[in-house]
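Trying the structure run again after the queue cleared.
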Amino acid sequence: MKIDLSLVIPLFNEEESLSELANWIKEVCEKHDISYEILFINDGSNDSSWDVISGLSNTNLQVKGISFRRNYGKSAALNVGFEHARGSVVITMDADLQDSPDEIPSLYKMIKDDGYDIVSGWKKDRKDPLSKTIPTKLYNGVTRKVSGIKLHDMNCGLKAYKQDVIKNIEVYGEMHRYIPLIAKWAGFQNITEKPVVHYPRKHGVTKFGLERFIFGFLDLFSITFMGKYGKRPMHLFGSLGTLMFIISIAFLTYMGIDKLFLNKGAKLIANRTEFYIALTALILGVQLFLAGFIGEMISRSSPKRNIYQIRDKVNINE
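Done. Tokens:
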């Protein structure tokens, strides 16, 4: 049977929220006549989350579930959810009830009727402490500048996608923060945002600390490099290596002309500071070219593989 909408919901220790969230989604989708499936991805929870999901899968809530053997992170959870999603539109949201299912119809319409590839939620009135909101504003500002994608809230968990998008990207490491950028590099340019309601957390505690902002900036540099040079690393390393060679040759030429024609009484070339600058630049150039060659060999020979292990599934048809 054709499904209009897949909801991919990664979770870690959210047992108190799951029943309320599933019933809320059901109420909204049935009210707007949207056929749906809920894919709960249990990211190695050590509470009763999987028992709750298993129970919900036996009801009329269209719940499906996948459980990892251990905690692999949000990127792995989203990636496996995308693999199993069957809806023509896919919406991701967090399981902590801070994202509102009431946003589903408008997000669905923007993908289905308005033709956007991705619609990213914007938590304009964010219900989080300053310790999270201030670093988030800084992180989003830098990300907009580097990526060129004008989104106010790149890391918002509430997003909607065309099925083509999620079937043609791979989310790994901690790259879930940059799915719009990954999609842009894959050729999906029609990206927009929508202000969404953000509720205070009702149950449990946040699973992310301040270290995510440090990792976020590192991941931004990584994904920018992979997007531009992942398939052609020699273009970057070779260009830098060529620059080093030019610097080396320029210094050596200058010293040679100076010694032979301009200042024959000058000290030996090997005793001059410029000689060691030229030698260092030459060594760096060789190393950069070698890094480019190694990068080319790795990029052409490395197979893609999943790094997560699934422990259990419910209502999942292979």
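The CA atoms of residues 27 and 158 lie 18 Å apart. Worth checking whether this holds up in the mutant runs.
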